[in-house]
Specification:
about 400 residues; 12 helices; about 15% strand; binds pyridoxal-5'-phosphate
Length: about 400
């Protein structure tokens, strides 16, 4: 039986195309970062309820600039550890390593796919600079206690919200709690700007640094004319246009991406309501004897349906994959980012962890966890058809 269910469908709409055409039809257009980027950043900040946003060319760039900013601001060199999840995207970890920090891994909870709080608290010591949480696949990973402890111990909270646009903790959107937060606008996520990312903060100095790091490290990109003047005075021998404050690259996005972003933002909330309804409907129709369904869905905003098998048989799992392929249901094994990061080759030379006893939940997801698509246009009948098919499989 063919069900034909892609991971994402129609995430670039006709109305996005109309807006892009309008942009391209203007006279003397500038398509590199300009007015539309500024407008998108202002609208995003308002939507998220933060003061500042910096639009970049990907969520990974947002991760990299964020950890680079932490490095630049970190005067206490003893603090060189960042606590990270074992289930996340590769760039959350590689950006930590590339900026000279030591990643300290913790396991996840199965009901949020996010970091296990008990393990976070155990790993905190005098070297801990930050906790870089990932709100995986639309679930909230925060608790009041975690926020309170981090505040008391003066440990930065950094939020990766690349997979959880619009999800809430209490009444506030995820991404508005941390010192810095990151979003991705890659095609497969809640909204897209083709490629793209956002770095958000309420701290003016951090905002100015992220702007410079986005753009060759140039002083004139800080967005602060006073700072620019001081630097021009300080570095009299340099051309005022070319004062490079920090070693970095070009992570800018452009006017086409921003135009799409402004338009997509208009329907983000209403699309998320549809996704959440779909998500709940999916969970109520899935067989709980075969699949894990006990997620903490409070405030969640899921762009995908997680499908975690209860079985521990690799043979049955392989059969499950075969059946999904046969029905043309697109899937990814390992949920967010391909499962346990600790098993990835890029970490082999850095970490010596071979015993995964402390990482039981991420191991479960690594071998038996999947996600399939949950897009706003998905109809109830199709969800029922998918559930019926999944429930009929011998696992
Ligand atoms: C949690 C998380 N962080 C960061 C990223 C990187 O975003 P991008 O693909 O826009 O570089 C992703 C990508 O899917 C992600 O899922």
């Amino acid at each position: 039986m063919k069900i034909n269910h892609p991971l994402m469908h129609n995430n670039f709409t006709k109305s996005d195309m109309i807006e892009v055409k309008k942009l391209l039809n203007q006279k003397n257009i500038i398509l590199t970062q300009s007015k539309k980027v500024k407008e998108f950043e202002a609208k995003w900040s308002k939507w998220l309820n933060v003061k500042y946003s910096t639009y970049v060319n990907s969520g990974s760039s947002a991760n990299f600039i964020t950890t680079s900013t932490l490095r630049l601001l970190n005067k206490n060199k003893i603090k060189n550890e960042i606590i990270v999840p074992s289930l996340t995207w590769v760039s959350d970890i590689s950006s930590v390593i590339m900026n000279g920090f030591k990643p300290i891994f913790v396991d996840i909870n199965l009901n949020t796919l996010s970091m296990n709080e008990e393990q976070i608290l155990k790993r905190i010591n005098k070297k801990t600079l930050a906790v870089f949480i990932t709100h995986a696949q639309g679930f909230n990973g925060l608790s009041s206690n975690l926020i309170k402890v981090l505040k008391r111990k003066k440990i930065h909270l950094i939020e990766d919200v690349c997979e959880s646009h619009g999800a809430l903790f209490g009444k506030k959107k995820l991404g508005s709690f941390g010192l810095i937060s990151n979003f991705s606008f890659y095609y497969a996520h809640h909204m897209t700007t083709i490629e793209g990312g956002m770095i958000c903060t309420n701290d003016k100095k951090i905002y100015e640094i992220t702007r410079m790091l986005r753009s060759h490290g140039m002083a004139r990109e800080s967005g602060n004319p006073q700072y620019e003047k001081i630097m021009q005075k300080k570095y009299k021998n340099l051309s005022p246009h070319f004062i490079f404050m920090y070693p970095t690259l070009n992570f800018r996005n452009n006017e086409i991406g921003a135009t799409i972003g402004i338009n997509q933002l208009k329907s983000l909330d209403s699309n998320n309501i549809k996704r959440t309804k779909n998500f709940k409907f999916f969970l109520t129709n899935l067989n709980r004897n075969k699949y894990f369904i006990d997620y903490n869905i409070e405030g969640s905003s899921n762009y995908a349906f997680p499908v975690i098998l209860k079985t521990s048989s690799i043979k049955k799992r392989d059969l499950f994959e075969k059946k999904l392929k046969k029905a043309n249901i697109e899937f990814r094994r390992g949920n967010a980012g391909g499962g346990n990061q600790l098993r990835q080759p890029y970490l082999k030379k850095i970490l010596k962890i071979k015993n995964f006893n402390n990482f039981k939940n991420v191991e479960k997801v690594h071998f038996f966890g999947y996600y399939i698509g949950n897009y706003p246009g998905l109809k109830k009948e199709k969800i029922l058809k998918i559930c019926k098919y999944l429930n009929s499989l011998e696992i």
